[in-house]
Every structure is written in C-alpha cells, then in structure tokens.
Design a protein that fits this description.
Elements (H helix, E strand, L loop, with lengths): L3 E3 L2 E13 L7 E6 L20 E4 L9 H5 L5 E4 L2 E4 L9 H5 L5 E4 L1 E4 H9 L2 H7 L2 E5 L7 H13 L3 E6 L5 H8 L4 E5 L5 H8 L4 H12 L4 E7 L7 H12 L4 E8 L3 H8 L14 H12 L5 E3 L2
Parallel strand pairs: 3-9, 9-10, 10-11, 11-12, 12-13, 13-14
Antiparallel strand pairs: 1-2, 2-3, 2-8, 4-7, 5-6
C-alpha cells in the first residue's frame, strides 16, 4: 500500500474513527483504525481492515433495488442483476458517489484517505472527554505501523496538543519503525497471540519471533506496555501456552498490565459479511470459569491481569 502525498501533505488510509471508546486504553478515547495488516488471523474481529486498499461493501439485504446508485455512478461501473447490484471492478474508481446517494445505506466505503490535519481535527472533537476522564487517542487497525510515516506525523501533532497517545499493535514491524514510533507514544497495547511458533505462523500468516523480539526491544527502551491476549479456543487457551506466556512476560520491565480478551462469536458473522473465509474450526466461546483459571495462572507470575478491555 502506498501512502499518498497530496496537496494537503501526507495522507493515510483509515477505515473507521470511533468515539467514546473505553476498551482501548485508559479513560474515554478516540480510536483511529488504520487499514491494512500484515497478519490474517483466523479470528480477526476487524477482517475488513486486513486489505491494503479501500473498497465499497455492498449489502444486498438492505438494497431497495431503486438503482439510484447505478444512475449516479459517473464511470458506469454498476449494473442490476438478479442477485442485486454488480460492480465492474475494472471501471470503478472508488469515488464513493454510489455510497453517498444510496437511500438504504446498502453501500459502504471501507477505507478513506485522511490528511494529518483531518485526523487531528476528529480527535480534537473529543478533547473535553479526554481531559475529564484521563483518556486520549488510540491508533489501532489493521496495523498502524504499516503506515508509520503518517502515524508519526499524527502522533507528533497530538503530542504538541498534550493528547495522550496509545498505539495498538501486533508488533510485526521493523525494529527501527517500532522504536521510532515509541519515541512519540505514551502507551503500547501489544498483542500476543500464542507462544507456539508453528501455530502462530499457521493461524496468523506471520512468524512469531520478530514479534517477541520487538516486545523485548520496547521493554528495554522503557516503553509503557499493556499486553493484550485474545483468548482463542483451540489456539492459546491451554495451560501450557498460558504458562509460557506468563514466564516470558514476567522477565520484562515496563509491562503495565495484561488484558485477557475472551473470544466472541460475532467475528464469524463479520467474516461472512465481507466474504472472508472463516478458518477457526473451534469457535465456541470460552466459559467464564476457564477464563478465571487462566487469569489465576498468569497472576502467579506476578502480573497484573484484567479480563476484557
């Protein structure tokens, strides 16, 4: 994915900006979701974020069949079929006119280019809530480190305004990029999926060791880090994995807390919605008693553990 240098400067690809978030760091936060991720986790809760280009999502269940979008499309890329409105990808320029005119909101643009000033302006709208709650902004994804030049400029702008900055990351990036971002970041939300290297590559598409090495680098640089562990059935909810995770984290400085994030089934329907295959065979929700057991195991390593958030 290429970042765009426009008349307003560097632009980044964002697929969502959510307000009043209380699960992405301390206080009330504005969460900015970057589009594009090097991982393709089987259980991903934001599968629409994985691709590195914007696209128009069409929901035929909401479509009225009014053909307003077809008439409005300047490229003539849309046509009516028995299954709904079809798009000729070779002609579509992603101008978004069809999204704007659809009366039923059956079409949705997933990914839009923002300038640094536009993102900062969106964050500033929530400044009062940040200040009253001890919150700030969290950059999530996708993987924000894939657009590190744009991310750094936004982080600098927020720092100049005294806004607390958190970066939610998979940790899969070059050490130079990660440490450069760390110079501008107040808190990292750092994902650990599984300590099984072979399973990690199979279930996420990338190797585990660079992620662990980068976590050590961050800790050595005295970054403030909050570990997030998505508890996925059949992937990392076994005693051995939790023991290995706890032992690894216990030796690192700067670990603010560990958050266990139990798996929830809605991720499956979201994959279907965006036409992305669901590969997690065991998609049961983990019982609360089991989550408590795993929490206790991690706490034996002297870690501060929270369920959720």
């Amino acid at each position: 994915m290429q970042l765009v240098e426009g008349a307003v400067g560097l632009q980044g690809l964002i697929f969502d900006i959510r307000r009043y978030s209380v699960h992405d760091g301390p206080g009330i936060r504005t969460t900015v979701f970057f589009k594009g991720c090097p991982l393709s986790c089987w259980w991903c809760h934001n599968p629409e974020s994985q691709g590195r280009e914007p696209f128009v999502y069409y929901n035929p269940d909401r479509c009225l069949g009014c053909q307003t979008c077809i008439q409005a499309c300047p490229e003539g890329a849309l046509s009516m079929t028995p299954d709904g409105v079809a798009t000729d990808a070779s002609r579509c320029t992603l101008g978004g006119v069809c999204v704007q005119v659809c009366p039923a909101e059956a079409r949705q643009m997933v990914g839009r280019r923002y300038s640094v000033a536009e993102v900062v302006a969106e964050i500033e709208r929530d400044r009062l809530f940040h200040e009253q709650s001890g919150g700030g902004v969290t950059f999530s994804g996708g993987e924000p480190l894939q657009q590190w030049r744009f991310l750094n400029q936004v982080l600098d702008a927020c720092g100049e305004r005294g806004i607390h900055r958190a970066v939610d990351t998979t940790g899969f990036a070059s050490p130079k990029v990660l440490l450069g971002v760390a110079e501008r970041t107040d808190l990292f939300l750092y994902d650990i999926k599984t300590m099984d290297a072979e399973l990690h590559r199979e279930a996420t598409g990338v190797p585990l060791q660079p992620i662990l090495d980068n976590l050590v680098r961050l800790a050595s640089a005295r970054a403030r880090i909050r570990i997030r562990i998505p508890l996925i059935p059949g992937i990392n909810d076994n005693d051995e994995n939790i023991e290995r995770t706890g032992a690894f984290l216990a030796d690192l400085p700067g670990i603010d807390a560990v958050h266990l994030l139990p798996f929830h089934r809605p991720a499956k329907s979201k994959h279907a919605r965006f036409g992305i295959p669901w590969r997690l065979e065991d998609d049961r929700e983990i019982p609360d008693e089991r989550v408590q057991e795993l929490t206790a195991r991690l706490e034996r390593f002297g870690l501060s553990v929270t369920i959720g958030g």
